[in-house]
Amino acid sequence: MIYAFDYDKTLDNLMVQELVIKLRKQGNEIWVVTMRSDNEFNNNLMKPILAKLGLSKYSVIFCSDKPKWEYLQGINADVYIDNISDEFEILKNHTNVVPLLWV
Questions:
Q1: Which of 9, 20, 27, 91 is least buried, going by the fewest C-beta atoms within 10 A?
Q2: CA pseudo-torsion sign 80, 86, 89, 91
């Protein structure tokens, strides 16, 4: 399966990181889909967590304020986990992804 995670208040959470490690060990594909922009500050901020999870910058999609659903559809994500449900209705209407709320 393909799992996608938001970064802020989701992937930067220790419990979510433990989930990602388990999912990777099971052979699942992991992506980070964030509204952040691809710049040096954001890359440096994410780098330690990505390294801990065995991911690289190439596992990150920087949406830069463009709709996440287009990127999630592009990677054919099965599950998207975020701490904000604002986009979940759009995801349900435009993709086959199952959105899950992390609180």
A1: 27
A2: negative
Helix (H, G, I), strand (E, B) or coil at 61: strand
* Mean pLDDT for all residues in the chain: 96
Q: What is the pLDDT of residue 65?
A: 82
For residue 10 the two structure tokens come to 């989701």
Which H or E run includes 17?
A: helix 14-25
d(CA 2, CA 45): 24
For 101, residues 6+ apart whose C-beta sits below 8 A from its C-beta are 81, 82, 83, 85, 88
Q: For residue 33, with 0-12 CB atoms within 10 Å meaning exposed, 13-18 middle and 19 or more buried, which class applies? A: buried
Q: Going along 1-103, which residue ranges are E strands? A: 2-5, 29-34, 60-62, 79-82, 98-101
* Mean pLDDT computed over 5-30: 97
